[in-house]
Amino acid sequence: RQFAFFQAPFVGNVVMSPPLSSPGRCRDSLSSEVGTPSTRYTSGEGTPARFTASSPSSAGSPIRRCVPTHSPVRRESGGSGSSFGTTPLNSPSRRYERSPVFQAEAPVRSGDSPHRTFRSDGRRAATRKTTRRPPTDPGECAIDIRLPKEKLPRPSGVCSAKSLYGEDGSRSAPRQFVWTTVDAVMLRPAKVAQMGIPLAAVCAPFADGIGRRLPVVDPGPAGPLRCPRCQSFANPFFQWSTSHTVRFVCNMCGHLLEAPESLLEDLDRSGRCSDSRPHPELACGSVDLVAADRFDVGRVSEGGPILCIVLEASSETTRSGFYDSVLSCFARLFTCAVQRRVCLITFDTVLHFYMPSKSGRFRDVVMQDIDDPFLPAAPDAFLVREGLETLFTELREASSSETCAAGGAALQAAVELASKTGGGDVLMFQNSNTFGRSPSFFKDLLNLCVQGGVAVSSVASVPADAVEADTQWLAWRTGGDILRLPGFESSRHDELEHHMGHWLERMRSSAYSCVFKLRCSKGLEITSLVAPWTVDEQGEQNAFELPRISADMSFTFQLQTWDDQSVRDRQLYVQAVILYTNCSGKRLLRIHTVPINIVFSIAKVYQSASVAPIVAVLVKQAAVLALSGKSPKDFLLDTCLEVLATYRAHCSRDNGHGALLISKTLALLPLYVLAARKLMYNLTSSKAPDMNESLMRLLRMPIHGILALLYPRIYVLPADSSDQFSLCPCLKEHVAEGPSQAYIITNGMGSWLWAAGEVDKRPGQLLIGKLRAALEPSASCMLDTLPNLNVAEASWAEKIHLGTLFVEDEGAMDMSYKDWVQYLQQEVLHWFEG
């Protein structure tokens, strides 16, 4: 007789959790990132650019793996307190086959055998000692370094937010809101420490922008349904208990809680919601709840967020044309009644407030005490919705001969006015440094911004080396923006208007007075927060307050697992909760819930990995190192080598020396790491103000923006009228020696024209408009101007800039893509030999 060395538990009608992926989520192995041979760039000989696969099944097209959309159904075998005694909400009772996670998953040590043979006398027979080799990963690919460089894996297709995140119809939160680096984890700390893949969650809670709205639920006076033990909110993964007809189990902590009568009235005889519309919080992974008054005490939110424009009116701004350009810009943008209330403050040696009168004109109210500024009237008296075009036109005719000395007082008065009227945005336009205040001035102002929900944005026309560092410090920590236009001239008016139009559009989709908290279920814990604000300022690792969160803002929570026997047969969960005020002034709760499966092999973790959030996390961690004065390039190299070496040791049987082995889900990781090294060198070699601003932007940039920045897209002109664009690799020789006369190169932050001679730029500008719409929500407006790129490299900075655009070429600071792959292959082999 033979007895199995590992036996999975079986308890009555038990349904195990689907492996590797979240319920209903498809694992498309780089179908949108790497592409298929039919959509790849084709070399001159007509050979499709593709990489070799280690198995015949994966040689043709990317592997797609889908899991059922229903959640697992678990039944209790008695009163033993097992966690199997639950039935999920909105899910029919259904039997599944035993999950492959529990089949042949136990690791076998050297000298053991999965089966032990016993003789008839009861003694164990002699067994042959064998060593179990790693199973072959069906999604494994081999990047052959002997192939031409055109056949190396690279992103294909237009980089857009929709194609990257995909359409997720499951009960989990869509990826644009919360995207974890892996969809499956191991609970054994020794194995987790070997993988090198960072376990993190990239959160962009308002990435829907203004084009999509989540379902809104009004829970009534009783408030939203939540667990009394862990305070988690109800979500689609709450499960009904079969032993208690009116109770269900919290998926975060396993606590049994009573179901409210309002919910029981909407249930059918089987204990399921007959209609998901009355309770979308039990069917959708992302939902908005109307917040009860008890969540906020004493907060002013009537009328919604406001916009306060603070403009310097000194003789310098008048002479440079900056003052006139700002007024004419907003006069054109405010041609009709605006959606939010607007206030205007100008300053030179005193502060000027503009109060509307009954005749339809505006009265100038002067406040001269700049040492102890105050509001000369009630805050609502300065807020208007109509007549702004007339006000800006009249102020353009006025001129000032005074110097500027009241910048700090004007900023303090604007923040105080906005905080007393429900919060909003303060736009500070300055041409000189006049913030001669006490050292604690900006810290006190930050506390006032957080309490009142006020975001400060700065537009400075002073030289880069003369910009006050504290102004940027305040803008990054309040969710505002920064725009520097050194040496401003009237010819840059269109650029200023383009940026301001983009900022106003982002304000419409922003959330204000935000209180964020991330909760983890048993088996997970938060280790750190990666964001422009530090942990010391906020105190907690999993919670913070921010005056504004825009649609393009993201931040990262680094996680770690801990071995808990009670969750080995369950899923892990991450829930993000944000209390915020929308543009209409309503106080809402936004909830995102994401599950993470538990597996028992490193190979399955690699199969569930997603290269996009992994690269985003690595870039943000590298930016933190660069801000602290450390080298980010070594960190990126070490992490990439650890991921490659662990995969080769635990997930592959091929010991050949001619290819770099990696899971197909991470085939683009070497290319993105090389591009990140070149980008970091470019940023850290610039001047301090430029470097700090760029690194801070990376810390809150969304995933699709980071991928577009790392690997620019090269489009052939003239562009096709359809959405099928012709692309080529980021190789300079394909542009310089290509058949087309003009190419557009864009990285999401800017666009450049490569042309052999004089060409019409209008087709390129139309193409930029389509690409800009595909990357929304975006922190950059990507101007329609197309500066020429094919000029002689006159400086070292231009060579570095070209290296970040043509990332596959050998640049001034790093090797080429093909040499990089060969270098990684050699280092991985040395890793094993050492």
From TrEMBL:
Residues 17-142 are annotated as: Disordered. GO terms for molecular function: SNARE binding; zinc ion binding. The keyword Transmembrane helix does not apply. InterPro entries: ADF-H/Gelsolin-like_dom_sf (IPR029006), Beta-sandwich_Sec23_24 (IPR012990), Sec23/24_helical_dom (IPR006900), Sec23/24_helical_dom_sf (IPR036175), Sec23/24_trunk_dom (IPR006896), SEC23_SEC24_subfamily (IPR050550), vWFA_dom_sf (IPR036465), Znf_Sec23_Sec24 (IPR006895). It comes from the Eukaryota. Residues 614-703 form the Sec23/Sec24 helical domain. This is Protein transport protein SEC23. It comes from Noctiluca scintillans (Sea sparkle).
